[in-house]
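Retry 2 of 3 after timeout on previous attempt. Resubmitting structure tokens to design endpoint.
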């Protein structure tokens, strides 16, 4: 049964061995920040288009079969670089959890070419060149694993994530597998840069990914999500985003005629296709609020790590952040290192704190609509407060981060 599960999840020929899964799912690596020192960084040229990426490795790590996450920066395909602070921070924090991470540059529409992004006919070739470069980065790691083994990676586990334009790259890297899924306009742009696989280098190695981290990204069409897609995806998106719409809409606040389907529009299709997914909607937020809000940045990073761990470690317990029906509940501050407060419009009878593996670490009884819980003895990480209400059968679950 488990063998069939892994074949479904990773695809034939891209399957994690059971020994690999068991060795990497010990409740620490990929979940906790077990490498607290600053990661090491190496800069390499990964493509025939002279694009570079910064590779981050856990400091002092001796493991030889490490998972990889590649990140792409934002900037509307016209600006930005692998030095984008949000992406760099993600690379460093995931490396502390035991991943090998990379921040890539990709070809941009610069100078007067930046105006091309207002028209799909001119914009799509730029986007597809970026997509070609991204796939070359994936193949770079698989080539290294098969040859020099410099980075000591598990080539069966490569995730791709991105912010804004980088997230658009990530979703299309994962879910666009054939030209038949694309409009004639997109097909033309893809064919001009080498087809589905692109022509940016490292041929002969696979460019599939095993998971997607989508921070304010989108797909050109949700019909690109079809029966051949199984890659799980974590998404974070502001529902007032005008740059990359949360629902279906025009990008760049309507200045461009390109229509995309944002994270909110993707979720029903993902659910309908039984693709594992998690969406954190930042209510009332505009584009990439986490890029300037450290609390939200820590939140999306911790949630992303917990999501990947719960999906790819079969003994872990995935717990959703859910409010009980008709029961409003707040938890603050979040993150916290000392005390959290839970506030509801109904009387709270008890709060159970569980870790990311579903283990109970603290239980507190309560009276009234507020409950304060001291958490200063908990290790840093993501936890869940399961709230039971007086005279209610439902339970609300709130996710929080201990710093």
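Retry 2 succeeded. Sequence:
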């Amino acid at each position: 049964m488990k063998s069939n599960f892994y074949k479904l999840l990773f695809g034939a020929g891209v399957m994690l061995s059971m020994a690999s899964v068991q060795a990497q799912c010990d409740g620490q690596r990929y979940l906790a920040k077990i490498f607290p020192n600053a990661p090491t960084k190496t800069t390499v040229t990964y493509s025939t288009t002279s694009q570079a990426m910064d590779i981050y490795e856990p400091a002092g790590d001796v493991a030889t079969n490490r998972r990889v996450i590649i990140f792409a920066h934002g900037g509307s395909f016209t600006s930005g670089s692998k030095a984008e602070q949000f992406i760099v921070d993600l690379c460093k924090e995931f490396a502390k959890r035991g991943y090998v991470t990379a921040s890539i540059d990709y070809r941009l529409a610069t100078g007067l070419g930046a105006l091309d992004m207002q028209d799909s006919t001119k914009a799509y070739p730029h986007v597809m060149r970026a997509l070609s470069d991204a796939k070359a980065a994936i193949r770079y790691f698989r080539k290294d694993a098969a040859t020099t083994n410099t980075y000591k990676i598990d080539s069966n586990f490569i995730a791709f994530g991105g912010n804004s334009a980088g997230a658009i790259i990530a979703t299309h890297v994962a879910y666009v597998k054939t030209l038949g899924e694309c409009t004639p306009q997109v097909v033309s742009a893809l064919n001009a840069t080498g087809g589905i696989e692109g022509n940016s280098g490292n041929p002969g190695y696979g460019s599939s990914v095993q998971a997607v981290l989508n921070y304010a990204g989108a797909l050109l069409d949700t019909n690109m999500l079809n029966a051949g897609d199984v890659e799980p995806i974590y998404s974070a998106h502001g529902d007032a985003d005008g740059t990359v719409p949360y629902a279906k809409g025009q990008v760049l606040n309507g200045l461009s005629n390109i229509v995309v389907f944002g994270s909110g529009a993707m979720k029903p299709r993902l659910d309908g296709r039984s693709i594992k997914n998690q969406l954190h909607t930042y209510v009332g937020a505009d584009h990439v609020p986490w890029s300037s809000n450290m609390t939200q940045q820590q939140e999306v990073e911790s949630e992303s790590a917990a999501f990947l761990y719960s999906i790819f470690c079969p003994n872990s317990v995935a717990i959703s952040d859910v409010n009980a029906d008709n029961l409003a509940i707040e938890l603050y501050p979040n993150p916290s290192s000392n005390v959290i407060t839970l506030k509801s419009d109904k009387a709270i009878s008890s709060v159970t704190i569980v870790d990311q593996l579903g283990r109970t670490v603290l239980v507190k009884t309560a009276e009234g609509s507020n409950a304060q819980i001291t958490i200063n003895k908990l290790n840093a990480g993501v936890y869940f407060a399961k709230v039971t209400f007086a005279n209610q059968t439902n339970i609300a679950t709130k996710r929080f981060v201990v710093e």
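Attempt log closed. The longest strand covers residues 153-163.
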